[in-house]
Structure formats: structure tokens, C-alpha cells
Amino acid sequence: MKKLSARRRHPLAAVVVLLLALAATGGLYAAFAPAGKAQADETAQSLAIEEGKKLYAVGCSSCHGTGGQGGSDGPPLVGVGSAAVDFQVGTGRMPAQQPGAQVPKKKKIYTQAQIDQLAAYVASLGPGPITPTEEQYNTEGANIAKGGDLFRTNCAQCHNFTGEGGALTSGKYAPSLEGVDPKHLYEAMQTGPQNMPSFPDTILPEKEKKDIISYIQTVNGEETATPGGFALGGLGPVSEGLFGWIFGLGSCIAVAVWVAAHTAKAKKS
User: Fold this and answer.
1) What gap in Å lies between CA 149 and CA 169, rounded to an integer?
2) How far is Cα 152 from Cα 162, in angstroms, rounded to an integer?
3) Cα separations (Å) of 251 from 216, 227, 259, 262?
4) pLDDT range class, residue 224, cuts 50, 70, 90
5) What does the alpha-carbon distance between residue 114 and residue 111 come to, in Å, rounded to a whole number?
6) DSSP assignment string, 63-89
7) At a CB cut-off of 8 Å and minimum separation 6, what does 124 contact?
8) Backbone phi, then psi, for 230, in 5-degree steps?
9) In 3-state terms, what secondary structure has residue 39?
10) Do 83 and 130 contact (CB within 8 A), yes or no?
11) Cβ–Cβ contacts within 10 Å for residue 142, how many?
């Protein structure tokens, strides 16, 4: 104890204690500070933007301009956000084969990693809707009945009652929603591609988007019954019966007129 007390009274004891305290503080900060992870994330994002810029220059700039400012064949992309890129490129609509009233869905030519890089670059041009996470479009616990009400109120006038799709004006159309990936359904509501209006969270909250997606998946599922027997826009058995009655009766009348016009008496007269 006498030896320890003598060391405490040494002139350099305070300096040693201070150095030990500084070393311990530095070690703890290096161990728990989030700066390393944040810096790594920032570096990865910068690399994604750089790679996306290269892909954009090759596949998109001829229509949308070298800086996303738009051109005669494509709209500006500043402010459309990563969700719009993920939807358009992920569904194969972009790059477009040719200008037209409606750009159809086709097989995508980019991998998901490349789509993410393109989305990162376009998102860097200006703020816009962000690509949703899986949690946002996961339909577990969604209200299917409410989703049906929302779909019939906001979507059925173009996409029909069960998402069969339908014709619009000037060569445009609302595509079928059968088999569409839930993420792309969510992004379509977020961004409003082509002729569709956008439904941001201020108009259609995340929960209601989930309800709509759940309804679409339910009415277009493999085990879903079709009471009418035909898929006439998902309108139901009454409309299908009316369709059959009108066209069936019209066909019977046409056959009767044709037979009457080809009888022997009719030919002699």
C-alpha cells in the first residue's frame, strides 16, 4: 500500500491517468461511433450513382437528355424519383422501343442491380418518390374488402372492376393488373405512369395502398371463382348473361333472315 501511495504522489501520475482516459475514450468512440457505417453507405451510394450515370448515358440520354432535362422524344426525369425508374425499367416499358400513345410492358433488359443504379442516378437529379421497401407493399393484415371499395372508387373506371384493364381514348389503354408484382403496383400508385394519375401518401396512405394490392391479388388469384364463366372485364354473371342474350338473339334473327331470303319462293319472286 505504501508503494502504491508513493506512485500516486509521483509528478507524472496525473499525466499517465489523463493519457489512459484519452485512450479509453478514443477506443470506445471508434468501437461504437456510426461514422464508419455511414461513410460506407455514402460511398456505396456514390458508386451506384456513378454506375447509373454510365448506364443512363447509353440507354436513356438519347430521349431524356444528357442530364435528364428531357427532349423531343422523352419527358424530363428531374424529380421523378427512384420509384418511377424502378417501375418503368423493371416492367420493361423503358427503354421504349418506339414513341407511341402507349408504351407496352415487355421483357426487361436490365438486371435489378442495374435498375437500382439507374434509379440512384435519376434520384440524384432531384427529389421524388422513393422505391418502396418490402414492408410497405407487404399485404399481410391488409383489409381486402376496404381495398375493393377503394379500387372501385379510384381505379375501376379505367382498369375495370377486377383489374382486367380496358381501352382509353386516342389509342391508349389501361393495362391488365393480373400477375403484376406488388412492388410495381405500389410504385404505379406512387408515381402515376403514363395516363394514370398519381396517388401520393397524402391522398392514398400506405395502408390503403396495401388494401388495394391485396384486393387485386385476391380477385385475380388462381383459386378465385368466376361465377359468370367468362372474363368479360370481371363484370360478373349478370353482364355476361346480358351480353349472351343480346348477341345470341341477334344471331338467331340474322340466321332466320338469311334462311327466309334463300327459300325457293323467295328465289322465284
Assistant:
1) 25
2) 9
3) 36, 24, 12, 17
4) confident
5) 5
6) HH-TTS---SSS---TT-HHHHHHHHH
7) 49
8) -125, 155
9) helix
10) yes
11) 20
Q: How far apart, in whole angstroms, are the C-alpha atoms of residue 248 and residue 251?
A: 5
Residue showing cell 327459300: 263
Distance CA 187, CA 149 (A): 20
Non-local (6+) Cβ contacts of 188 within 8 A are 87, 196
Distance CA 130, CA 237 (A): 41
Structure confidence at residue 17 as a pLDDT band (50, 70, 90): confident
Secondary structure of 85-117 in the HEC alphabet? Answer: HHHHHHCCCCCCCCCCCCCCCCCCCCCHHHHHH
H/E segment holding residue 38: helix 35-59
Q: Which three cell numbers stand for residue 231?
A: 372474363
Quote the CA–CA distance of 120 and 47 in Å, as a whole number. 10
Q: pLDDT of 105-144, one tens digit each?
A: 999 999 999 999 999 999 999 999 999 999 999 999 999 9
Grid cell in block for residue 244: 349472351
Residue 63 to residue 83: CA distance in whole angstroms:
19
Q: How far is CA 103 from CA 81, 176, 223, in A?
A: 19, 14, 31
Type of residue numbered 122: V
Helix 206-219 / helix 182-191 crossing angle, nearest 10 deg: 130
Torsion angle, alpha carbons of 128, 194, 160, 133, to 10:
-30
In one letter, which amino acid is 197? P
Helix (H, G, I), strand (E, B) or coil at 147: helix
Per-residue pLDDT of 144-189, as tens digits, reads 999 999 999 999 999 988 888 888 988 899 999 999 999 999 999 9
